[in-house]
Each structure stands twice: as C-alpha cells, then as structure tokens.
Amino acid sequence: MSNIDELTRYGIVHLVPILQADSMEYMEKLFETLHPKTFLEIGTAIARTSIACATILDDVKIVTIEKNPEMASVARQNILNSGFADRITLIEGDAREVEVPDWKYDMIFIDAAKGQYQRFFERYSPMLNEGGLIVSDNMFFHGLVEHPERTNNRHTKGLIKRVQRYRDFLDQHPDYETTILEVGDGLALTRRKDDSHV
Length: 198
Ligand SMILES: C[S@@+](CC[C@H](N)C(=O)[O-])C[C@H]1O[C@@H](n2cnc3c(N)ncnc32)[C@H](O)[C@@H]1O
Fold this sequence. Notes:
The protein has helices spanning 4-13, 21-34, 48-56, 69-82, 117-124, 154-172, and strands spanning 38-42, 61-66, 88-92, 105-110, 128-136, 176-181, 187-192. It is α/β, with parallel strands linked by helices.
C-alpha cells in the first residue's frame, strides 16, 4: 500500500485508529499553507499522515514515532512502498523515551496515547522551531470530555480526566496559546506566545 486512499481503506478495514476524515483534510490544508520543512509525528499508526505530508510537500523531512511493533512494521512497509523512505524516518519505540533527530521542527503532531499528551508536549515542545505549530488530536475524546457521564468504565473515566487536564495545561500555559477546533475529534493548535510576530 502506498497511496492515501488505499491506506485509508486499510485503516478502516483493520480498525486502525487513523485520523478522522475531516481532521485529515484539515492537516492537509495546514501542510499546504504552513509548508513545514520539518514535521514530527508522535503516533505513526500506518503512516498515513506522514505519507500524506510527504506527498504534498516535496522538501519536507519527517520523523514519526510508533511504539507498537506490529503497527511499526506495517508503517515501515508503507513508507518503503510510498517511495518517501529518504524523507520519512520511522522510529520504533515509546515516544516518552526514544532518541529523535535533534532538529528544530516546524510542526509537531501529538496523536498517540491520550493519557500521555502532557509528557509528550513537555518532551517535544522545546524542539519546536520559531513560528512553529503543535497540533494535538482527540481533545474531545469522542464527546466524552463534554459528557463524562456517558461511560461507567473506570479506565475510560481516567483517560477523560487526563485529556481534560491536558486541555487545562495548554489553556493555562504561560508560554503558549492554544485554540481548540471543532474538527474531527477536536484538534488543538498551539503556538508559542512570543512567536506572534513571526
Ligand atoms: C491514533 S493512532 C495514530 C494515527 C496517526 N497519527 C494518523 O494520523 O493516522 C495512535 C498511535 O500511537 C501509538 N502510540 C501509543 N502510545 C505511544 C507512545 N508512547 N509512543 C509512540 N507511539 C505510541 C499507537 O500504537 C497508535 O498506533
């Protein structure tokens, strides 16, 4: 598999948690308008978003991190098939601890374990380039942040709290400003405050 439609079909059939259609469309618009030269993705899944980014931007360099070995193996094959292996580096491991290229990233996309977003943010936000953007997915957590009463599952309730805490963390962060968009499962767009002149 290499083209985006094939990857989308594979994701749906195999129940891979790929980005929702309207979020994907929004990300593609961001790639086109912001034209990042470096893109870091936390949570690769089958590499659909990274391959979409490399398809749109022929000079982007991408690092994408995936913890699940089976998923990483599918992603690796997809990246090879796409012909973008020279521009997409897949790192297999836990994004909380793996080594990543010590670059400045124009765009960082946080889309992995929902309970860990604040740790990902704290670890990777110092690598954000001036004028760069951090995008975090799942800020609505399937409507459960707004309506936590819809579940009785203790684990899910714990995750809802952590997503809400991450949203509060972003909202109250002295150095960053965040807007949450009603796109897909909720996309948070975060920029450094002192970048407002960029
Ligand atoms: C929602 S999917 C990613 C979707 C992908 N970003 C896309 O746009 O299609 C989340 C992925 O994050 C991976 N993941 C979860 N925790 C992680 C961690 N600590 N480090 C790296 N990857 C992680 C999961 O295995 C899963 O494949």
